[in-house]
Every structure is written in structure tokens, then in C-alpha cells.
Amino acid sequence: MTDTEQEVHAVAERSREAAAELAPLTRDAKDSALHAMAEALELRAAEIVSANATDVERAQADGQPQAMVDRLTLTPARVVEIAEAVREIAKLPDPVGEVVRGSSLPNGLELRQLRVPLGVVGIIYEGRPNVTADAAALCLKSGNAALLRGSSSAFTSNSAIVEVLRAALTDTAVPQDAVQLVPGSGRDSAQALMRARGLVDVLIPRGGASLIQTVVRESTVPVIETGEGNCHVYVDAAADLDKATDITVNAKTHRVSVCNAAETLLVHADIAEKFLPRVAAELIERGVVLHGDERVTPLVTTAVPATEDDWSTEYLAHDIAVRVVDSLDEAVAHIRRYSTAHTEAIVTDSQAAARRFVSRVDSAAVLVNASTRFTDGGEFGFGAEIGISTQKLHARGPMGLPEMTSTKYVVTGDGHVR
Amino acid sequence: MTDTEQEVHAVAERSREAAAELAPLTRDAKDSALHAMAEALELRAAEIVSANATDVERAQADGQPQAMVDRLTLTPARVVEIAEAVREIAKLPDPVGEVVRGSSLPNGLELRQLRVPLGVVGIIYEGRPNVTADAAALCLKSGNAALLRGSSSAFTSNSAIVEVLRAALTDTAVPQDAVQLVPGSGRDSAQALMRARGLVDVLIPRGGASLIQTVVRESTVPVIETGEGNCHVYVDAAADLDKATDITVNAKTHRVSVCNAAETLLVHADIAEKFLPRVAAELIERGVVLHGDERVTPLVTTAVPATEDDWSTEYLAHDIAVRVVDSLDEAVAHIRRYSTAHTEAIVTDSQAAARRFVSRVDSAAVLVNASTRFTDGGEFGFGAEIGISTQKLHARGPMGLPEMTSTKYVVTGDGHVR
Question: Which residues cross the membrane (chains A, B) (predicted)?
Fold first, then answer.
């Protein structure tokens, strides 16, 4: 093992010990710790903002784009928001201990399946330093030790936040090592984390497609893939065109940089002539560029011709790929081929079409007559979200606190033998 | 890609297409297919037994141990049992479509989280050819395409069984490719399966520790670890010694070769002098060798001294490691250090001790006053079991049909936008 690996493994070992202490704590004990963390963030906001200034200056000196600098910047008001978010997490129900399934077996054994923490949760994330406090709080509330690995661009900010959170835990029942930052900010420390199988129970990458793909490829620790969203809106032959227009415009333009924004519009041939010019006008008015196939471009003269790449691109920008299909099944086949299986929506007044689309489309979320923008832990009423899983194992779709747990069977007898 | 990789990927691609056709099928359609499979197994039992004879002869010629040859051997009666097991699976409720969670959101959106199939399930297994039909039936019932990779020693038997099952699907709604055998029986074909990320949704290894570890290490497809069981029985100071004796003897000797057999006995110092000679006499009578620490050997003169290795060994034989501990917490610490987190039992009449043990021990199943042998899908009332997961993600403990599914959110609105 390299020095970095040894260092990261030693830290992970401490996370593991903290996780064992944290797991049996009551909700009250965990909530007190969360409130202590929130208070400390507010009291020591000046320190955090000052540490952040170092990162911001370096980013500016490095000529980083302004949007990136904005995401990185913390203000006293922003730190108060971060503290408030921690308090909101304290308000949520504790998933640990929930009885998922239970029965009395024929032989009198009492069987219960309980939610328990996962253990050590590694989070690898980019940019925004607010994720540091947010991820730590979500882990703590669900009884997990958080082992955090932010981007090197936010290393000074993240170190300051973690130092404040750990100090706040001193007088609580939660061990300080329940919140740790992976030491170092180089690639090798991230890699050591990805290889800490047996010490880290799960890795959740939060960030862009390339970060997520790197973690999936290089990690021997189990990974929950999140966030890549090549989302589709399919406007059926039986769609109400007012609703279809509203939903398409909202899904594409409400916020273009997020994973649940629409990236491709599929339109049934029967209504293409009426619908496409209409939706195109609304989209173009909002600065959207349409990338259309050869049946779209004659109807929308400003559309640029779509290439094969457009169908699989997550633009995260004011662009949308547009294709005319001859049937619902053709739309489904297109989605199966190109989608990242995050979110797809159908707009239709036909019950049969909705039913077929819902049963045939294999994505984390399938929406009927609603914008793709609703796939979100907050919108779903989960209160908080650690990410949106696009994989099928363990968790799929928006992940709230229950998705940050495993289960354990507890079986009680009275001397039972087989 | 090598030729083998191309071949295996082409087969996996067909599994993928079959999975898409299989996913929306009704329970009736799937059950009809299962009954057709069961009938075909019975009708063509002679062919299967004759193919099996080839494998058996080769195993004998290779000088394989008799126990291995026994596990490999099929008789007409055994094939009927296999068919019966398929019919039992048909009787179980269909997990697909179950609403796991649902609510009406404040804005009127209707949210439902439904169980859906995982997609393509790869099973890598050893020895027994009955697993072929069993795994195929469990996959089919849960709406998944089965991509099977048995051991090379059973290749002729497995090929015959799969050929019978596929032929039986001809006149059903289930596509034939829902059941496929990975081509080839060499190491390279198993490896190609483990690398078919994106084509295969999950790999479940069924077999010994070394098979499972190989799959975990080499696979880029997500794996569910199963079966390794270094299970502990802890006899507390407050134990009823009659029950403690019965439970220890049952956990160790009821069936020594299974993953839920006990491998280590931890005894509280307060009762060691009374309990150890008593339980040792019962165990020794049944041919068990005790491997004791330095506080055990003076009390059980026939015990051999335990080495560090004994604490982490899954004997699967008539051996048990025995240690005296000074407290429940010392027992918990021992378990945390050496256990594979499969199953641990406590024997105690103290409510406080039971509560502490259950909350502190982090294993898939924790039993109070019951034998470790109860950790089993059948005993838990699941009707069938694809394996016992010893990992924390996705499924933990005995895996029934619901554990072979993922979920999907279906959100229905009426033109909803954000």
C-alpha cells in the first residue's frame, strides 16, 4: 500500500469504529447532535466564509468559469441556509429501527426485519461546499458515518466545515469520527477511497457524468450510481396539446442544468404538424435550440439537423433533441435505446397509451401528464435527498433517508431448534 | 473483445431483449410458463438423467470425492422433485407490480412506487444441477431473464435441463431467451459474464467461499454476495443452560455443511464452568472437535487449542471454535471482528442482554434463544430462496422473490408543471 492508501484506510477504519458507536443511538441523541452542528455552523460562519475565500480566490486565479466560481462561493447568509438545512434533516423521521416486515412463524418464532444503518457511507462530490454539511447530516440522521471527499477546488472550505461539525460533536453522544474528510485532495486519495472495500460500505458519487463514470469504473466498494439524466418527453397522438406544450416547456426550461430536465422530445406523427410549430415557438422564445430529425426540420425551420449523438446527449443546456415517431412503441424503443433510465414522461389523454407506456418504459421514474422536473426527493415528499439513483440495485430514483439504510432480521424464540 | 466475450455478450444481449418482453407479463402468463416447464421436466426426465450420467461418469473418472458425485447425480425421482419445486414457485405471489409506497402529493400528483423486475439476472453456481431449474424458475417468476453459468462438471446436465426448459416455453408468452445458459464451460466464459456490465443487471454467485470471492473481485457487474457464514452462538451469563445446550448442539450438528451452521461458540465466564463440560459432552458424542482458547481447554480436556485462524474459519464440518468471554460486549467485539455477518445467536433469559446484543451485532440475522439454523428463506416463510445475502446493499439475509426486484416510481398528473 502507498502512504496515501495507508492514510485513507486508517481514516476509514476510524469511520468504521464511529459507525459501530453511532448505529444504536436513539433519534433524540442524533437530533441533538444535528442541532449542535447547525448552531456551530451559524456561530462560526465567519471562519467558514474566510476559508472559502481562499478557494474562491484560487478558482478565480485559475481562470475558472464564473458559474463554477458562483457555485463555490459561500456568504454568511448561505452558511445560515446550510445550517437551516441541517435542522430540517433533524425534523425528519428516523429510518433506523423501522420494522419493514414482521410475522409470527408457525413454530412460534417472532420474525422482524428492521432498518439498520449501512455503516460507513463514502460521498465523492464536486463543487458546492454546502454538500459537505448536507451529506454529513443525512448520513448522521440515518446512523451512518460519513466519509467525505469533495473536489480539490473546495478543499479549504470543506476542511473548515468539517472541522466545525466535528468540534460541535464533542459534547454529544455522536463520536467525532462520524464525520470525516478524506485526507488529501489529489487523485490518489480519491482512488484509495474507491478501493477501501470492507471498510467503506457504499460510495455515492454526486456530480457530473464523468465523475460518476470514473467512480463506477474504478471502485471496488459498491457504488450507487446517481444523477445522469437523459430524460424524454413523449407527446402521444391522444395528447392534450395545451398540456403537452406546458409540460415540454417546463421540463426543458424550468432549470436546464439539472438531471431531471428533458433532453429529448418525441412526438407522435399524427399530431406533429399541429404540435411541433407550436411548442417550437415557445421553446425558441426561451432561447432553446431544437435538434430535429428529418421529419422535424420541415415543420420547424429554425431546427438544426440532429445527429446520432444528439439522441444520447445530456445537454444540461438550452438544447433539445426532437424526433417524430410513428407509434408509442417506437417512442418506447427509442427510450430503451438512448435513455439513462432516469425519468421519462408521456403526455396523453388515452388511458391505454398511458398504461402501455408505464409498463414498457424501464426507468426510475415514469410520469404521466406531468413534467420530468418532478423527479426529486423534495417534490416526492421525502424531505431530503442524497441523490437520484439511476441503477436498479438497492435504490432507484430519489433517495431519501430510508434508502441510506440496510435491514437486519431479528428472530426471537424460546429455545427453538430445528 | 475475444471470441468468447463476443459470444457471451451476444447471448446476454438476447437475454436483455427477452427481459424487456418478460417484464410486463401478467402473473397468469408467467405461471403458465412455469407449469409448462415443470411438465416438460417430468416428461423428458429420461433425457436429463441420461445427460447427467455423462457428467457423473466423468466426475468418477476424474476421481472426484463421493460427496461431490452424490450432489451431481440426478435420478428420475430427483427430476420429479425438481419439477415439483418449479410448481411450488408458481404458487408464490408475484412480487412484480406490488405497490411498495404510494401517496397523493399536496399538488395532486399521484405517486406510486412499484416493484419491477431487475432485468437480466446472472447466476454463477457450483455442483448441483437442480439449481439450474430452480434459478430459472425464480428468475422467471420475478420477471427476470435468467442467464445461467453452472460448473463445468455439470455442463452436460445443465445443457439438457436448459434445453428442456426452453423447449417448454415455445407455446407460452415467455420468450425462450428468458432462460439461457452461458456458452462454454471454461473460465473465460465465466469471466466474460462477470464483465458484461450494462447487459447483465446483477450477478448472484451460489456456492463456496472461493467462488463467491472470485465473483466479487472480478465482476464489474453488480454482485450480491451470498452464503459465507462464520456464525456464532453466544451463551450469556443469564442463559438457561438446557436451552443453551440444545441450541448450540442444533446449530452445530443439525447439518454441518450449510452456511447457517454455527462455527464459533462464545461462553460468558460466569457460566463457563457449568456449561462448557455439559455442552462439550453432547458435541463430542456427535463427533464434534472443539477448538478452545486457554480458558476452555482446562474445562474440556479433549479440546484442541484454538489458533487465531480458528476464529475466522467457516469449518462446514464437525468442528467448532470455543472461547470464554468476560462480558456480552466482549462477545459482540469478537463477533464484529471475525464474523461474516451472516447469523449470530444469543441464548439468554435477560431482556437487557438480548436487547443490547440485538442492537450491537451487525449481521444479516440476529437470533435470540433460537438456533442459527433458522436463517433460511423456507424457515422465514418466504416459500423460496435464491440465496442468503451477507452484504448490506439491496438485500440482506434470505432472499426471496421480492429481493429479485427493483422498483420504479409512477407519477400521474393532469398537466402538472413546476
Answer: none
Per-residue pLDDT band for B338 (boundaries 50, 70, 90) equals very high
Residue A302 lies in a domain: yes
Identify whether residues A20 and A140 lie together within a single domain: yes
> Taking phi first (over 0 means left), then psi (-120 to 50 degrees means alpha), and beta for anything else, what does residue B394 get?
left
CA distances from A153 to A60, B5, B57, B219 (A): 11, 41, 65, 33
The torsion of the CA quartet A227, A128, A140, B388, rounded to 10 degrees, works out to 30
Is A240 in Cβ contact with B411 (below 8 Å)? Answer: no
B369 lies within 8 A of chain A by CB: yes
In a domain, B74, yes or no: yes
Q: What's the domain count of chain B?
A: 2
Residue of A nearest to B392 (CA): A406
Has residue B384 been placed in a domain?
no
User: In this prediction, what percent of chain A has a pLDDT beyond 90?
Assistant: 89
CA gap B206, B203 in Å, rounded: 10
Q: How far is CA B168 from CA B13, B35, B74, B159, in A?
A: 22, 9, 20, 14
- B354 and B220 part of one domain: no
At what angle are helices A27-43 and A45-61 packed, to 10 degrees?
A: 70
Q: Same domain, yes or no, for A142 and A246?
A: no
Interchain CB distance below 8 Å, A393 and B118: yes
Q: Do B397 and A381 touch (CB under 8 A)?
A: no
Instruction: Decide if B193 contacts B201 (C-beta within 8 A).
Output: no
Which stretch of A22-26, A125-129, B373-377 has the lowest confidence by average pLDDT? A125-129
* Residue B91 sits in the same domain as residue B162: yes
Q: Taking a contact as any Cβ pair under 8 Å apart, which residues of chain B between 107 and 136 contact chain A?
A: 109, 111, 113, 116, 118-119
The CATH code of the domain that includes A289 is 3.40.309.10
> Does residue A386 belong to any structural domain of this protein?
no
* Domain around A345: 231-374
Round to whole Å and give the CA distance between B317 and B339: 17
Q: Is residue B285's pLDDT more than 90?
A: yes
* Cell matching residue B267: 461462553
Cell digits of residue B98: 406490488
CA distance to A64, A66, A71, A158, A165, per residue, from A151 (Å) = 14, 17, 12, 9, 18
Long-range CB contacts (< 8 A, 24+ apart) of B274-278?
B274/B241, B275/B235, B275/B239, B275/B241, B275/B244, B275/B245, B276/B300, B276/B322, B276/B324, B278/B241, B278/B245
d(CA B224, CA B226): 6
Among left, alpha and beta (phi > 0; psi -120 to 50; other), residue B369 is left
* A20 and chain B in contact, CB less than 8 A: yes
- The model's confidence at residue B252, banded by pLDDT at 50, 70 and 90, is very high
Determine the pLDDT at residue A342.
97
Reduce the DSSP state of residue B161 to 3 states and report it. Answer: helix
**Phi then psi dihedrals of residue A109, to 5 deg:** -65, 140
**Alpha-carbon gap, residue B385 to B78, rounded angstroms:** 19
Distance CA B215, CA B126 (A): 13
CB B136 within 8 A of CB B146: yes
